[in-house]
Amino acid sequence: MFIILSMDSFIDKTLNIREILESKNISVCGLxxxxxxxxxxxxxxxxxxxxx
Length: 52
Hints:
With about 50 residues, the chain is α+β, with helices and mostly antiparallel strands. It is about 35% helix and about 20% strand. Strand 2 (about 40-45) and strand 3 form a beta hairpin.
C-alpha cells in the first residue's frame, strides 16, 4: 500500500513527529526523514528539503 503525500503534507507530518517527541521531553537534536515514494527528504537539523 502506497500513500501519496504532497511535499507540504510530508513537512507537516515530519514537524508533528518532532512536536510529539518534544512534548514527551525527548530532545530532538537532528531529524532526517525520507519518504520513498516521492523521494522527499527533510533534515530538520540542516534545513534541507528536496523531492521530485
